[in-house]
Input
Amino acid sequence: MVNEKICIQNLSVRYGDVNILKDISTFFKENSITALIGSSGCGKSTLLRTINRLTDLDGNCAVEGKILLDKKDIFRDIGANELRKRVGMVFQKPNPFDMSIYDNIAFGPRIHGIKSKIDLDEIAENTLRSAALWDEVKDYLKKNALKLSGGQQQRLCIARALAVKPEVLLMDEATSALDPTSAAKIEEVMLELKQRCTIIAVTHSMAQAIRISDKTVFLANGMIIEEADTAKLFTSPQEAKTKQFIKSALG
Amino acid sequence: MKRYAVSALLYLAAAFAAAATLISFLAIIADIMIKGLPEISLKLFSPVYDGENFSMLPACINTVFMVAFVMALSLPAALFAAIYLSEYSESETICRLIKSAVQTLASLPSIIYGIFGYLCFTVRMKMGFSFISGALTMSLMVLPIMIVSTQSALASVSNQIREGGCALGATKAIVALKLLVPAAKRGIISGAILSAGKVVGETAALIYTLGSSAEMISGLFSSGRTIAVHIYAMCCEGLYVDRAYAASAVIIIIVVVINALANFAALKSREERW
Amino acid sequence: MLARDNGRKSMKISDYFESLPFLMSAALAVAAVSAICFFLIAEGMPVIKKIGISKLVFSKSWRPSEGKFGIFSMILGTVYVTSMAALIAVPTAVLTAAFMSKLCPTWLYKVFKTVLSILSAIPSVVYGFFGLMTVVPIVRNTFGGDGTSMLTASVVLALMIFPTVTAMAEAAISSAAKENYHSALALGADKVRSLFFVVLPAAKNGITSAVALGIARAVGETTAVMMVSGNQTAMPQSLLKGIRTITANIALEIGYAADDHRAALAASALLLFAVVLSINIIIGILGRKKQ
Output
């Protein structure tokens, strides 16, 4: 029985008069990495932001349809804050808070009730190890996070997201603003995390999708054109649009 | 030829205006310092005021108390109101209503607060000329200014921080209080300093609420004078011109020092980034 | 039915509690305006009922002891003094701001900025004191009389509003200059022409706000004007005779006024309140029209 961690049913998202997502239906398997690909403006970031209800923050955004997390409707059955504890997000541009590395990571656990220093220390070490950042910062945990390099900041953001122990991790072009070495490190992190998390990653890089994802979903113009196991999608795409996109991207 | 004439004329006009104003203002400052500095003596700072020394120390201390109290009353209220306006307000109409109310309050002449405070607190609520009457009046006067500056400081914080906080499951309140307020620190503080300046400079509204007793205030219901009221009393009611000059010189020194500190702080925080 | 709306409904209750302290504080601002408004109405009502609004506003004689409460001479006093102060301060401020923005060397700019920010922070009573000690004798020696007059008050007011108007105007001009200045220079105009014929018009809005702020400050100023204007309650006769402004009137007499006298002062405060409110509403409507 395939465990569908997240199930999208007839999802449509509108900003004012503009239809960004048009009647999308798909699912994301537990403990897998799914890549969302497509050209700019096709709606992949919007899809991601709807899954953790960040769209609630946008004034003129209207959502129709259902999204299920473990069979529960995220709009009706789960509170927004509770949802975001279970579904974490890493943004395209690293956005560490203006505080120490330690406080950045402790922020999430602290607001969800974890106060004991021992627990927080443990969480900091575990998540920094998972994000492949521990060795570089273990002696500088009190240092201000803004002083880290871009790649380090992004790994810190991943550690921060992991600190609340999410079941799903949404990554919105998390490596596009980084140099190749840092990007490679983060891809390693993602592959390791997949055992504990379900990862949905928007990516501009076909190569990255091929390297790390199990399944790929191709969107264009707010609709899913094709979705399949990654290997299959890239070697034998069925739809014309998919063929065209892959060809123009990979040359 | 005509082209150059027009440009030259405009340049001269602007330069003349600038020079005239610079000179007149330096003259004002110089005038007060020249006449005031010689008058400053240790006597003026003796802790006990009497008909001899016209000490301004009680006035200075009263001013400090007043500013501290007013800040304690209005800063939290302004902060919370600004957070509501910037993070919570869903309904357009409620938001606009509150914003217009704040705008109106912010542009009222201070004497209106003075007469309101006098009639409402001093007379009707029978608080008399007291610290509490003055403090409540000043808090009302300063509240809208702080709401406006705090709200604009909060609004200019990057959305990335909001989204980052929200994505971790934080409620709007926590995002606002733990992430946005620290980020908007500088704007909030400058609004607070502006308001403090208004409290320090206020005369008429305080004469009728706080009163102008020359003593140091001893409790919420005792009267006292702030340094601005003191200067007014010295020159207009007592005609002790030399003391007034001394007090004015002291105020100018304080203003210059605070200005320098603010600039220094701004420079330092810009360095710290890197 | 939008899913978002549905989600919102089930969340509404806990959301509501969370937002309560913030909403209450914001409501405080509305409560304050209403309180001040209603209170002044209540206090001023007795005299408004007795002699009617038009008599209060337009009658020219203010003699509380005889029961005459006409504030027209004070209204004129405020209008004259404010207009004159604006006439003196505004052109000078805009020219100075223009000079500061593009026509002066950096070190001079810093000097100006420092002087301006110090001056804005000096309390009005110090300006009034300076006016009393320095401007009044000058007027007295030049024109006779005792030195306190409409002219003196206008000069002192101009001095007071100048720093604020200049600082704001300079900010507006500098930010408008960013886009337009270099384009104008590139077209061959010299510095001065670019500044005056391109940048200044572009900064129109910011400059107008600066001027409006200055005028608002002038109208609301009490202490300094009180110290140098003479405070005669008669109709303003000439530049060199004394006048009394609405604000000074309130400040001078509220301490010992009772009954109808006090009510009349409250009513004049109400008038000020209404004027400020209308100006805000007009600015709001104009602002929305532009969009």
